[in-house]
Amino acid sequence: MNKLKRWAGQVVMLGLLFGLPAAVVAVDLPPLSHSLTKRSPKPAPALKLNDMHGAAHDLSQFKGRVVLINFWATWCPPCRREMPSMEHLTQQLKGEAFTVLAVNVGESVNDIELFTSQLDTSLSFPILLDSRSQTLQAWKIAGLPTTFLIDRKGRVVASAIGGREFDHPYMVRAIREQLGK
Description:
With 181 residues, the protein is α/β, with parallel strands linked by helices.
C-alpha cells in the first residue's frame, strides 16, 4: 500500500509539472489544520485590489468588520482543499460583521474560473487578483496558503501558514471572539 501511495504522489507531481490537474489522482494528503497563531495587534498593510469582475476592494473600507484574508493559488493543493471550508464559514457567519477576502496570487481569471467551476459549491466571497504579486510582497508572504485575521480596527490579530479547515469550531470561535460574541 505504501508503494501505491508513493507512486500516486509521484504521478501527481509529474502531472503538476506538465500542467495536469491534481484532481486526476487522489492521494492521502495531511489533514487541514484548524488553528490560528495570535499576534500582538498591529495595523494591517494596505490591500487595494480588483476582484475577478473588476470591482475595486480596499481593506480600509472594512473597518468595523472582522476580515479573514487568505492568500492562495489554484496550483497549491492545500489552497484548493481549504476553499470550500472558507465558503462554509462565510455562510455560517452570514449577516454578521465578517468578510472573507481571497487573494489569488499571479494567476489569470480564466485559471481561477476553471478551478472554481470544479468546486461542489459556489463561492460567495470576492476573489481578489494580485496578478503581479505586489500585495504578496507588501504582506511578506513566505508560503501559500497564508491567512490573516483582521480585527474591527484594521489590525492583524492572528495568522496562519498552511491549509486550514475554516469552518472548524475552533476557527469559528476565534472569529466570534473578534466579533465580540
